[in-house]
Q: What sequence folds into this?
């Protein structure tokens, strides 16, 4: 699910208002997906093709080498194309790897939006990757020391609850308001 233009405007208005009230740079980044994961369809298709070749060698030993190779090649091509469908591709990627890629992108976004800012007032980033179903709040060192991990985790947990109910834009606006409240 992507965000509509109205949702993005509402989120931007909440960010602007929160920044004005707490004198800290607050940014939100909502991305559809953190990586393309282009290698995973090929790896899974190759593994299936090897299983097909092995099964043919065991159960159909009378087939020629050419026929076995053709069956392996055909299964590789079919499964590569099938697994390239993006919703299925995301399911093939282990959750740990999806979250790692999302976390890396979140920290890049934090560096680009908060740390690289010309204003030296510190800040926080609320990051959401919809495809990976991942959310994180990253704060600069001083803000994090004052607020603490438990507070950020509570705000993220409240957002996750709203997202599970299909209220992603509302959850983001609420998270921004909660961040403003603790700052």
A:
């Amino acid at each position: 699910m992507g965000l509509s233009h109205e949702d993005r405007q509402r989120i931007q208005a909440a960010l602007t208002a929160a920044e004005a009230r707490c004198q800290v740079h607050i940014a939100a980044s909502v991305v559809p997906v953190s990586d393309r994961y282009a290698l995973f369809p090929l790896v899974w298709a190759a593994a299936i093709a090897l299983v097909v070749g092995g099964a043919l060698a065991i159960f159909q030993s009378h087939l020629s080498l050419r026929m076995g190779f053709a069956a392996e090649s055909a299964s590789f091509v079919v499964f590569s194309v099938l697994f390239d469908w993006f919703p299925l591709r995301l399911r093939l990627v282990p959750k740990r790897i999806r979250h790692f890629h999302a976390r890396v992108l979140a920290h890049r976004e934090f560096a680009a939006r908060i740390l690289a800012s010309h204003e030296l007032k510190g800040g926080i980033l609320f990051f959401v990757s919809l495809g990976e179903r991942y959310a994180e709040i990253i704060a600069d060192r001083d803000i994090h020391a004052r607020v603490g991990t438990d507070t950020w985790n509570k705000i993220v947990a409240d957002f996750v609850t709203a997202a599970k109910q299909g209220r992603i834009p509302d959850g983001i606006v609420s998270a921004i308001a909660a961040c403003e409240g603790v700052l």
Remarks:
- Strands lie at 25-31, 123-129, 134-139.
- The chain has a mean pLDDT of 94.
- The CA atoms of residues 79 and 122 lie 48 Å apart.
